[in-house]
Design brief:
1024 residues; alpha/beta; 28% strand
């Protein structure tokens, strides 16, 4: 039956029909019989249709077509030749079995860690070539692929999935999802992929305590696995164990070994005498590389921490070395271990920072170069990734972070709008116009001819805009058919950065630069914009312009260059791929004429550093000079300044804005400027698990003689750094073990106190930072006395840094986990039991799936000759019930019920006459049926006949009035009224005798003749 109801219980409302008939028949009695019956019929239909709508009436359609989705495993466990044969199998299977006459459809889904649609379900098939979908092949998630396939199936066909895989899933639960698909009526065929037997060696893990004591011996264990048949020969090779800390690397062992089939364990006793954070790496190298299929799983690492006195990393500007030597010596004298690192030899990974308890940015800018920099590869710059490492190391792992002032620090050093600014207790930008003047920067872009010119122009523009403060002005001009401003065209091109920063960055991303023919036009527009800014009340104090070009445009006029000199605008030129001597001379002339700098760049990687450095010139007003020097004022008795008073005078400091947070403690302020929010000299606050300190004054050896000669200087810097360091204390007897399995890392902590008694505390806190510098959720719960367990996702290869907070006065426990390779390299055999279980699932009202090749005892290999045996299974076989698609039609029933309701009202309120039917019928007879029309009687004859009838009627009336016959006893019945007058009554004429029978016609004729005669006389009088 094509009509069904989704909620049939609503059909009980039809029992109201007799009630409607009974009540309506009585209430509509005045309409007449036929109108009453029609109105009742309308009402019945309205109730019927509304009831069908409530019951969700649906139209069902049966469809004999079928949709088959092929799911192809593209993970790294599948050899390349097997992947190629997968595509050949799909192409030939579709070509042989798809029934186009039944509108069958086919689609392809490829999967690894995720599933992507290579070909959507279509009723035609384009031969499958190279796989275009981008996948992460380091994991196999068959469950995700099945879920993606279920979402792709159309509703109006039978459904079947053909899975081509080795069945070695390491994410998800495919069998559970397959059961769900079977319950939904989806059949699953499985084609197993046979993995070739091969010898495989892998370093499974390096095991050692995560936190050991100085000089305490401990056991180091390395577990290797040789995946080979039991009777296989041992695999010879070299095992190399290395210990790393900072920049040092020590080889602990380099021993020839032979790996027997199965697990192989090697142990060594290790003692560490120097406190630090250590990384142990074990690497196996087979003697014959051809005997080991995969090299990615031949290395594993582990971490341990040996506690000692605090270790501090001081990063200084490589272009000005030695400026903080006195500061470093003071820390060392206070008992701290200090490592001095120049900014051009920065750390490269988060594990490198784990050896330090606090990190000091000693007046270092974000990017720097020496005075003779052109393009010799010199220069240094903190990348976004390195800045993120600094912040995560503090927020998630508890390390201290201290920033010291100077002319190249804080906002003046290009650190504004970076992630580091979020970690500091002060903002690096000033919003008050009363505190610091604004700057203006113009960017001229003409570097489209250099390799990847548009990419680099966008990159350097973004870097420059990020450095600028909220109140600074910025404009960008380019050649695009004409000289055009990229933004602010109606406002002269130079607009404030603060409210427009996001818009500027978005416009830069869409920038397309053409080949500028001449500098003159663009430079005139920029000069006019600078002149307009000079008319403002708060005009820019620093005006700067940067031109990047190949020098090909014609040089500007001398008058234009003089205009820039008069406006006080310095122009820095960056020559890239200059057109010989002429182009170089043009760029150099522009820079020298305006007092700017000239750069020649042959390595595009140097461009961001140049633009960061030049954009900082606009931020120079952030440095506040105090003349004469003034001593800062103590505003908070903080732990850092405990036991100190009478601070030395400072000559300058970098203006900042205190963050609006109750956690921020402002310790020292400068008397100038008077606005307290912008006069901070020292502030501190807790940030995540760590602490950060901002000291905005210049404390360099050659520029802060008042401070270096202060008798409390060593105490001051020592207390500042020690307050910021990671928490220290007795760690008790904690053992931390980590295991990696199925994309997850399990952390097990056994806690004992000094007396070897279980430690039972509140739930421990823990944080994890992944290889991408993002926090990873980790929750640790107590599962037994003294044992705590947690688990976190670790699917991405790389180093995971783990910090555990035991609670109470216990110090933080730090460890790390290195996920060197995916589980894809562990499984070497086809998971046939899983694939058989999936194929045996029986879909609802259908037959179970097929294990393709089972009858032939064949699986997919790298040999093309196996294909004919696999193609015997028809994925388009009709062993599934025809698909039934349902479409709700209740909206149409509601619409029809509304129309019928109008008819009910109409038939009751409006009475229709049928007089119009006779003329209409006559018109139909004449124009449709072709009958002749009757000739109408002339109008004059009709009037004559009417007049005749009228006269005849008048005549009859007149005759009736004039004829009179008195009754015989008139005298006796009615006496004469004249008698009452007293005289003799006049004599009444005698009544004529009645005529005889023969005389009646004669009398009538005489009467008629008299009447006619009287009528003629009347007409004669009218004629006169």
């Amino acid at each position: 039956m094509p009509i069904v109801f989704d909620s049939p219980w609503y059909l009980l409302l039809l029992l109201l029909l007799p009630v409607i008939w009974a009540t309506s028949y009585r209430s509509l009695a005045g309409l007449g019989r036929w109108r009453r019956l029609v109105a009742i019929g309308f009402r019945s239909l309205v109730l019927l249709l509304l009831t069908f709508a409530l019951a969700d009436i649906q139209y069902q359609k049966r469809n004999d077509s079928m949709t088959v989705l092929y799911l192809l495993d593209q993970s790294m466990s599948i050899p390349e030749d097997h992947r190629q044969l997968m595509k050949d199998f799909v192409n030939e299977s579709v070509a042989e079995h798809l029934r186009a006459e039944k509108a069958d459809r086919v689609g392809v889904v490829v999967f690894g860690r995720d599933a992507e649609v290579e070909t959507p379900p279509l009723d035609y098939f384009v031969e499958l070539g190279n796989i275009s979908s981008l996948l992460d092949p380091q994991y196999t998630n068959l469950e995700g692929a099945l879920q993606r396939a279920r979402a792709l199936f159309p509703e109006d066909t039978a459904k079947r999935i053909v899975v081509v895989t080795d069945g070695n899933e390491n994410l998800g639960d495919a069998l559970s999802e397959a059961r769900t698909l079977a319950d939904a009526g989806i059949s699953i065929d499985v084609l197993p992929v046979q993995l070739p037997p091969r010898s495989e060696a892998a370093v499974e893990k390096v095991s050692l305590p995560s936190d050991v004591r100085q000089g305490q011996p401990f056991e180091l264990r390395v577990v290797l696995n040789h995946d080979a048949p039991e009777d296989a020969a041992p695999l010879p090779g070299m095992l190399r164990i290395v210990r790393k800390t900072g920049e040092r690397e020590e080889i602990l062992a380099e021993t020839p070994v032979e790996l027997n089939p199965g697990k192989n364990r090697f142990t060594a006793t290790e003692t560490i005498e120097r406190p630090d954070f250590y990384t142990y790496e074990a690497r196996f190298t087979p003697a014959d590389p051809t005997t080991d299929t995969t090299a990615q799983n031949n290395i594993a690492t582990a971490f341990t921490h040996v506690r000692g006195k605090g270790h501090v990393l001081v990063i200084e500007d490589w272009a000005e070395p030695g400026q903080f030597d006195y500061f470093v010596d003071s820390l060392r004298k206070s008992g701290l271990q200090v490592t001095l690192q120049p900014s051009n030899q920065l750390f490269t990974s988060l594990p490198e920072l784990q050896r330090y308890d606090s990190i000091v940015l000693a007046g270092v800018p974000r990017s720097s170069s020496n005075a003779s920099f052109e393009d010799d590869g010199s220069g240094a710059s903190f990348t976004d990734a390195q800045i993120s490492m600094l912040v995560r190391n503090t927020e998630e792992l508890g390390c201290g972070l201290v920033m010291l002032g100077g002319p190249n620090s804080f906002g003046a050093g290009g650190w504004a709008n970076t992630e580091l600014e979020k970690a500091m207790p002060v903002d690096f930008q000033i919003k008050s116009a009363k505190v610091v003047p604004v700057g203006a920067l113009a960017l001229m872009m003409h570097a489209s001819e250099m390799p990847r010119g548009n990419y680099w122009q966008k990159r350097i523009s973004i870097e420059a805009i990020k450095v600028l403060g909220a109140r600074d002005y910025c404009g960008m001009i380019q050649w695009n058919v004409t000289d055009q401003w990229l933004w602010g065209q109606s406002k002269g091109g130079m607009i404030p950065v603060g409210p427009n920063r996001n818009m500027m960055l978005a416009r830069v991303d869409t920038m397309t630069v053409g080949d500028m023919p001449a500098f003159e036009g663009a430079m005139k527009k920029v000069a006019n914009s600078f002149a307009r800014l000079d008319q403002l009340t708060n005009k820019p104090a620093v005006k700067h312009m940067i031109i990047i070009s190949d020098g090909d445009p014609s040089a500007p006029s001398r008058a234009t260059l003089n205009q820039y000199k008069q406006l006080g605008v310095k122009i820095t030129t960056v020559a890239v791929g200059s057109h010989g001597t002429l182009g170089t001379r043009t760029m150099r002339t522009i820079a020298e004429a305006t007092g700017g700098k000239y750069y020649v760049v042959r390595n595009a990687n140097a461009l961001p550093r140049i633009y960061q450095r030049e954009a900082r010139r606009v931020a120079r007003p952030l440095v506040k000079d105090l003349d004469p020097p003034q001593a800062p004022v103590l505003t908070s008795p903080h732990e850092i300044v405990r036991g100190m008073e009478g601070f030395p005078a400072i000559k300058s400091f970098v203006l900042t804005t205190v963050k609006d947070s109750a956690l921020v403690e402002v310790i020292l302020r400068s008397p100038q400027p008077p606005i307290e929010a912008n006069s901070t000299v020292m502030a501190a606050w807790p940030y995540g698990l760590g602490k950060t300190v901002a000291f905005t004054a210049d404390i360099r050896d050659n520029y802060a003689a008042n401070w270096t000669s202060w008798d409390r200087y060593e105490q001051f810097v020592s207390q500042m750094i020690r307050w910021s360091m990671r928490p220290t204390g007795d760690t008790g007897n904690y053992t931390v073990a980590t295991t990696v399995e199925n994309g997850k890392t399990r952390v097990v902590i056994d806690a004992l106190d000094k007396d070897e008694q279980f430690i039972n505390v509140a739930p421990m806190g823990a944080t994890v930072v992944g290889p991408d510098m993002q926090p990873v959720p980790l929750s640790i719960e107590q599962v037994a006395p003294g044992r705590y367990v947690g688990e976190f996702d670790s699917m991405t290869p790389g180093s995971y840094m783990v910090s555990i907070l035991p609670g109470g006065n216990q110090a933080m426990i730090r460890t790390g986990v290195n996920v060197g390779y995916s589980e894809e390299f562990r499984d070497r055999e086809t998971n046939l039991p899983l694939l058989e279980s999936i194929a045996k699932l029986k879909p609802e009202r259908g037959e179970p799936g097929v294990l393709v090749g089972a009858d032939q005892n064949a699986m997919l290999t790298g040999n093309p000759n196996i294909l004919p045996e696999l193609l015997s299974a028809d994925p388009y076989r009709r062993d599934m019930p025809a698909a039934v698609s349902s479409q709700s039609v209740w909206p149409w029933t509601v619409l029809l019920a509304s129309c019928l309701f109008f008819g009910d009202v109409f038939i009751r309120r409006v009475q229709i006459g049928f007089e119009w039917l006779q003329p209409a019928w006559a018109w139909v007879q004449e124009n449709v049926m072709g009958r002749e029309r009757e000739v109408a009687v002339p109008a004059t004859m009709s009037r004559l006949q009417s007049r005749k009838a009228e006269v005849q009627k008048q005549y009859e009336n007149t005759r009736a009035e004039t004829r009179f016959e008195a009754p015989e006893d008139a005298d006796e019945l009615e006496p004469s009224p004249l008698k009452s007058l007293g005289g003799a009554a006049p004599e009444r004429p005698k009544q004529a005798a009645r005529p005889k029978v023969g005389e009646t016609d004669k009398e009538a004729e005489s009467y008629t003749s008299r009447l006619l005669k009287a009528k003629k006389d009347v007409w004669k009088d009218k004629d006169k």
